[in-house]
Design goal:
This protein is α/β, with parallel strands linked by helices. It has 15 helices and 20 strands. α1 runs parallel beside α9, α3 packs antiparallel against α4 and α3 crosses α7. The longest helix has 19 residues. It binds flavin-adenine dinucleotide and nicotinamide-adenine-dinucleotide. This is NAD(P)/FAD-dependent oxidoreductase. Keywords: FAD, Flavoprotein, NAD, Nucleotide-binding.
Length: 468
């Protein structure tokens, strides 16, 4: 078996798989090393299972808003079974088959850089293999959850995104540490699936602090109505769990402690760069691998090392990682052909990544928030509109609550960012992504007529509010 390839990729998550696909399309040979399951976190412990758990909760919210429909209790066992099916019952043979059909070589084991252009693999079935790369090595090892150094927390063996997404039980009382995306999505999933008492302990002063402030406020209101408690401006001081898997006491700086059956830590992620051999090529461990817009590691001479996805810290999102992977595969292919300055670059990241938070209400945004746009020095005008006032939204359900914001660059009359918060808002996002990325002039956007009666009419209302 040949152990020399044009490209060697470490990590077969969504990003590693896409680099391989793109490089082979360009006529190169490739191998990808994976220590766990082909498909990565996204397929088994992140995007896919979390959305499978949230879908019935979202639908229950929709049904509750339409008079005349009866909401039956959620059959949790059926939801968990569908989640298991969605993650392929942790069988990655389909994904491995796809990689092999590219065609590329799939190597099961732990990969480690071993000097320039060389990857040493501790094979899953024992033994070792050394792969060398003629053109490029790509690190696509993803990220892992951070467990902050709170006394007693690590000893309590809390849930992280892994355990909550693969759970076969819903805890009666759940305490969630964090107020970001994982915390909000998983608190709502567990509560909707039957947790009796769900409490978020949030260090900052609100939820989803990187989004427009109204988004977190709307979500907090929806959480309060559902009985999910959000406690802000607080940090856990220590935890006690005398029995493994038993009850947990969560101590706060003041007031009585919280008693829980499980604790979910959702306090961010760190790049998976430990023990990947970065030191053998002169790079530091435990920090994101810094790359340029072609995904080439800036700290390595000769330009043979690349990093895509969560591990480079640019945008911890599957779709952005896959986009980076396509850029990276095309750049490697072009350079292998002798084009040292290929035109392909990560452009989308610079506009601000599109993202959907799959809660009820859904929160989605692309581009810059007002605060970021102002900090970046743009002359900004902000346009807000109450989505509940749109006929299409009213028809979706009683008491539809939603809010839209457009951030306009007043000098160029284009959109810098758009945020929607409301039930079913996720599908509005791509239109916003096109408008922001293509920098469609507002007086041209005015001619994009939204169909009646859809929630998309909010676009017309935003432009009218702006004065067009
Ligand atoms: C709960 C949760 C929900 C999420 N939901 C969404 C969502 O709805 N939408 C969205 O866009 N993003 C979502 N994300 C983020 C998304 O999961 C990540 O951005 C995405 O998985 C990153 O892909 P990646 O290929 O960089 O890394 P990963 O998916 O982490 O894949 C990396 C792979 O590399 C392997 N690996 C690591 N080290 C080695 C090694 N030394 N040798 C061999 N193999 C190795 C790992 O086993 C893994 O399979 C979510 C994240 C979480 C935690
Ligand atoms: N639907 C989606 O697109 C989706 C879903 C889940 C996750 N993700 C991605 O995964 C990444 C990780 O998500 P996440 O929610 O873990 O991270 P995050 O960065 O979104 O949120 C982390 C939260 O933890 C808090 N925090 C951090 N350190 C803390 C500490 N020591 N003590 C108390 N609180 C602390 C932060 O203030 C914040 O509220 C995100 O960047 C997100 O983009 C995306």
């Amino acid at each position: 078996m040949a152990d020399e390839f044009d490209v060697v990729v470490i990590g077969a998550g969504p990003t590693g798989e896409n680099v391989v696909d793109r490089a082979v399309r360009g006529g190169l040979t490739a191998a990808v090393v994976e220590e766990r399951l082909a498909g990565g976190e996204c397929s088994y412990w992140a995007c896919v299972p979390s959305k499978a758990l949230l879908r019935p909760v979202d639908l229950a919210g929709e049904v509750a808003r339409v008079p005349g429909l009866e909401l039956a209790p959620i059959d949790v066992a059926a939801v968990l079974a569908r989640r298991d099916e969605a993650v392929g019952n942790f069988d990655d043979s389909g994904q491995v088959g796809w990689i092999e059909s590219v065609p590329a070589e799939f190597v099961r084991g732990r990969g480690r850089l071993d000097g320039p252009r060389r990857v040493r693999v501790a094979l899953a079935d024992g033994g070792e293999r050394v792969l060398t790369a003629r053109h490029a090595v790509v690190v696509a090892t993803g990220s892992s959850p951070v467990v902050p150094p709170v006394p007693g927390l690590a000893e309590a063996a809390p849930w992280t995104s892994h355990e909550v997404t693969e759970t076969s039980e819903v805890p009666e009382r759940l305490v969630v540490l964090g107020g970001g995306v994982v915390a909000c999505e998983m608190a709502q999933a567990m509560h909707g699936l039957g947790a009796r008492q769900t409490t978020l302990v949030v260090r900052g002063d609100g939820l989803l602090s990187r989004m427009e402030p109204f988004a977190g406020e709307l979500l907090a209101r929806s959480f309060a109505e559902a009985g999910i408690e959000v406690r802000t401006g607080l940090q856990v001081s220590r935890l006690e769990r005398p029995e493994p898997g038993g009850k947990v006491t969560v101590h706060l700086p003041e007031g009585p402690p919280l008693e829980a059956d499980e604790v979910l830590v959702a306090t961010g992620r760190r790049p998976a760069t430990r023990d990947v051999g970065l030191g053998t090529v002169g790079l530091p461990d435990d920090v994101p691998i810094e790359v340029d817009d072609s995904m080439r590691a800036t700290g390595v001479s000769d330009g043979w090392l690349y990093a895509v996805g969560d591990v480079n810290g640019r945008a911890l999102l599957t779709h952005m990682g896959k986009y980076q992977a396509r850029v990276c595969g095309d750049v490697i292919t072009a350079r292998a052909r002798g084009d040292e300055l290929p035109a392909m670059r990560d452009v989308a990241g610079g506009y601000g990544a599109p993202q959907v938070v799959f809660t009820d209400p859904q929160i989605c945004a692309v581009g810059r928030t007002e605060a970021v746009a102002r900090a970046d020095g743009f002359r900004v005008r902000v346009v807000d509109y109450d989505m509940g006032a749109v006929t299409g939204a009213y028809l979706l359900g009683d008491g539809y609550r939603g809010q839209a914001r457009a951030v306009v660059d007043e000098d160029r009359k284009v959109l810098l960012g758009v945020t929607f918060a409301g039930p079913g808002a996720a599908e509005l996002l791509h239109a916003a992504t096109i408008a922001v990325t293509a920098e469609v002039p507002l007086d041209r956007l005015w001619h994009a007529v939204p169909a009646f009666p859809t929630v998309s009419e909010v676009w017309l209302r935003l432009l009218e509010t702006y004065g067009l």
